[in-house]
Every structure is written in C-alpha cells, then in structure tokens.
Amino acid sequence: VPLETAPPPEAPYRPPEEEPEEIEEPEDVEEPGLPENAAAADAAETTGPSNADTYVVTWKSTPHPVPMNEGFSLEVRVAVAGEPDADLADLELAADAAMPDHGHGMNRKPRVTRIGPGHFQVEGMLFHMPGYWELYFDVTRGPLRERAQFAVQLE
Questions:
Q1: Strand 46-49 with 55-62, pairing
Q2: Does the structure show a pLDDT above 70 at 119?
Q3: Digit-coded pLDDT (tens) for 81-112
Q4: How far apart are CA 44 and CA 74, in angstroms?
Q5: CB 94: neighbour CB atoms within 10 A?
Q6: d(CA 71, CA 68)
Q7: Which residues contact 79 (CB under 8 A, 6 or more apart)?
Q8: What was the pLDDT predicted at 109?
C-alpha cells in the first residue's frame, strides 16, 4: 500500500502592508451621555413624556438640585399630552427611584399626596449614594398604568 503524504503547509496569510487609513470624525458628533429627559443640574423643573406618550410629566425637587444622602421632596404635575383641558380627577401617581446599574432602589418608600387634579407632592425621597439614578412616575388612570422615567446623575 503506497504511503500518502500530506501536501506542504501553506504559508500563513499576511495582508499587504499599507498605511492605515485615517478616519475623520464628524465635527457634530454628540458624546454619549444621559437620555434627553435627564435632569439638568441647573434646571428648576424637568419635563418629559410617559413611555407611550400619553402623559407629560413635570417635576421639581426641594431642595434643588437633588442632594445626596439627604431627604428631598418632589412636586409633580401630570397632563394628558395634547389635551390641556383633560379631566384629571381620577389620575393617580406612584413614585420610586432605582440605580439600574447597581440593581437596587432607594432605602425608603416615598409617600404621594394629591394636591389637586394632576398635581402631586412626593415626600420621603432619598438617594443614598452617587451615580446614575432613574426616577419613576407611574401614572394610573382607570385600569391603565403608564410610566414616565427620568435620568438623574448624582455626583
């Protein structure tokens, strides 16, 4: 039986040597950062839509800006998007916050009090550590609940 021999090994592939192509960055590139509805450090009020755009939620903290490891309260107004005269008597609000990167929320359960139709006071908020927080407002009207969330960067 004749002995079969393997073909000679091929030389490893080496791409032709070329100068690396210089890539130009466009001048208007935005740096990644907080979402559009992030709480600006100098803004007295922050406004943004609920996740399905049914509501517009506006909030402000006292004290301002949101402090670290100190209690604060929120004044929250909710409106129906595109319906400034909508009846808000049956609107309910729940508030909470979490640090999604850390997998935990606040160490407190906030209390929400209705001031008037679509107008609420949230007491007992506390962000106990620096970093990226998300503030959640769950708006309930009848059987439907919709969330508005806002990014807060605490230094």
A1: antiparallel
A2: yes
A3: 999 899 999 999 999 999 999 999 999 999 99
A4: 11
A5: 15
A6: 8
A7: 55, 56, 58, 86, 88, 118
A8: 95
Residues listed for the chain: 155
| Mean pLDDT value across the chain | 83
Cα–Cα dist 134/120, whole Å? 19
Q: Are 57 and 78 in contact (CB under 8 A)?
A: yes
